[in-house]
C-alpha cells in the first residue's frame, strides 16, 4: 500500500514541546557476548504510546515506562554488523528491542535470530507483523482469551490494522467462525479486509456507520475483538448477545486524548446482558509458553495459503532516521493498512 | 434502623411529570387456581429503575420493561385472603410479583409459599432480602461469577445495602476471603458493615475517601464486587491486581442520570492489567438450578449465627399505600441500611 505522509505541524513532532529529540552518541566496540547491529526495520505499535504516557504508573502498566532522556523503546529487525558471540555471525538477521536507533549494541541473549523464507512469502518484516506481536496478539486474544468457536459471530475493530487483519483471517480460516465482521476506516480498507475473508467490513467514517453496523450485526454477535475502545466499543456493547465476550486488546481512540479519555457509557449493557470483558497483553502468551505452538500454526496456514501476508498486508515506509517519529505518528492517523513498518533509509 | 424520609419535592413523585399515579380498580373474585392476596411487604430494588427506563429496549434488558399504564412491577410478601387453589389456604404467606398494589389477583402457580422461622430469626421480610434476590445475588455473584476464594482480598461497594451487606458476610464467613473491604455512604453505615465482618469499611462521602480507599487496598485486591458503577468503579479499576476480577452487579450511580451516564474512564486498566469483568443477573442462578443449594447454605449459616440478619439488616418503612413511591426513592438517596422494605400500612 502506498504510504501517506502525516501533517508537518504535529506538536508531538516539532516545536518547543516536541516529544522526541535527535541525539548522536558513539558506541564502544562489542564486549563479551555482545553484538553491534544495524537497524533495518522498526515496528510501530500503538502500545508504545502507553510507554511514554505522562504519569504512567510503573505498577499499573505492564512494562517499565520509558524515562525522559532514554532512547524511545521499539522492536526492530536488525542485521548483525559486528559480534563477539559465537551464535551470531555478521550478516545474521535478528529481532530485538533495538529502540529508535540506527545502530545498537545488544547482549547476544537479547537477540532472536530470524530465518525469513522468501519462497513461502515470509519476509524479514513479518517478524514484527503477522509472525510477531500483532499476529500473536490476534491469535492469543481470539482463541485463548475469548475462546472464539466456529458457532460464534465475531466483530473486529481496527480490522485493517496489523492485529485486526490477522484476527479476521484467524477467525475465518483457522477457527472457522460462522460470521466475521470487520470495522475499519475507509472503503478501500474495508474492501481489503473483505478480501482477507471478512463476510463484511463496515467503514466507521461513513455517515451511516451506525446503520451499517446494525445491519451487519443483525441478530447480535457472540464475540467482539476490540482494538480501538471509545465510541465504537460503546456501540458494540449494545450489539453483543447475552453472555457475549469482549477481548479488550487496545484503546487507540483514547491514546492521544491526554487525561480526559472518552468514557464508556454503556457499562449497564455488561450487567444486563451478562457480558464478559477480558483484557490481555500478548506477553502473557509468551511467558506461559503458548506462543510457540500458535506461531507454528500460523506459519502452517501461511504456507497453505489460507492466511495471506502479501505486500498489501504491511505498509512499509522508507524513512530517514530523523523522521522515525513522523512515520510512527501515522499509526494514530489511520495511515496504515496492515502492519506499519519503518524501513530505515 | 430508623427510616428517614425523602424530600417532598422530588419530581419523580409529584408535579405534572410525576412518574407514578394512583389508580383504584375493582378485582373480580378468584377464578380456578387463582388466589387473592393482600400485600404486606414490598421489595425495593435498584433494578426496578431499569424496568421503567425511558427507551429501554426489550431485547437488551433482561426482562420486559413495564409499560405505561401498567401497575409498577415489584416483588412482594403477601398473605392469602381468598383462594380457589388446593395448595394455598387463607392466611398462608407467599412470595410473588405482586406489583405496587394493596391486593392482587394471582395465578396460584406464580405464588411461592413462605415458611418463616421466628426461632431461627427468619422473618417474612427476609424472603425479599437476605434469603431473596439480594442474598442470592450476593452469593451467586461472589462465589459463582467471580469465583472468590480464601486467598482473595475483596472490595464491595454499596456494602451497607441489601446485596452488599450479604456479600461482606458471605465473603468473610462462608468463603473466608483473606480481606474484605466495604465501601458505604456514612460513618455509621461503615461501622455497621465492619460489625458484619468487613476488615474495614470506607465512607465514600468522606473528603479523604480516595486516600482511605488507597490505604485499605494497599497491595491491591483480587476481586471487586460492584454494586454502584460510576466514579467508584473507575477508582476500583486502578486498585485491582493484575488478572483481577470484577462482578458487575449494579450501577446505581447512573440510574437516575437519564441519557448521560458517567462514562467509565479507566478502561485501559482492564487491558493493561488483564482484568476480567463479568456482568450477571440473579435470575441466571435460578434458571440454572444453582439457587436452591445456595439458599440452603445461607440458611445453615444463619442458623449457626455466622450470617447476621438482625433487625439492623433491614430498613422496614411503614408506608401508606399512596406513599409507596416515596419509600422506593429512598433507595437512590442512600436512605437504607440493609434491605429497604416497604411495609404497607
Total number of helices of chain A: 10
Poorly predicted tracts of residues of chain A: 1-6
CATH class assignment of the largest domain in chain A: Alpha Beta
Biggest sheet layout of chain A: 7 strands, mixed
Describe this structure in words.
The structure is a homodimer of 345-residue chains. Chain A is α/β, with parallel strands linked by helices and 345 residues long. Chain A has 2 domains: 63 residues, Medium-chain alcohol dehydrogenases, catalytic domain (Quinone Oxidoreductase, Chain A, domain 1); 231 residues, NAD(P)-binding Rossmann-like Domain (Rossmann fold), CATH 3.40.50. In chain A, strands 1, 2, 3, 4, 5, 12 and 13 form a 7-stranded mixed beta sheet that branches. Chain A has a 6-stranded parallel beta sheet with strand order 8-7-6-9-10-11, sandwiched between helices. In chain A, helix 2 packs across helix 3 and helix 2 packs across helix 9. The longest helix of chain A is centred in the middle third of the chain and has 14 residues. The two termini of chain A are 18 Å apart. The N terminus of chain A is likely disordered. The interface between A and B is medium-sized, with 35 and 35 residues. Strand 11 of chain A pairs antiparallel with strand 11 of chain B, so a sheet runs across the interface. Chains A, B: This is NAD(P)-binding protein. Chains A, B: Keywords: Oxidoreductase. Chains A, B: One of its GO terms (molecular function) is oxidoreductase activity, acting on the CH-CH group of donors, NAD or NADP as acceptor. Chains A, B: It comes from Zopfia rhizophila CBS 207.26. Chains A, B: Pfam families: ADH_N_2, ADH_zinc_N.
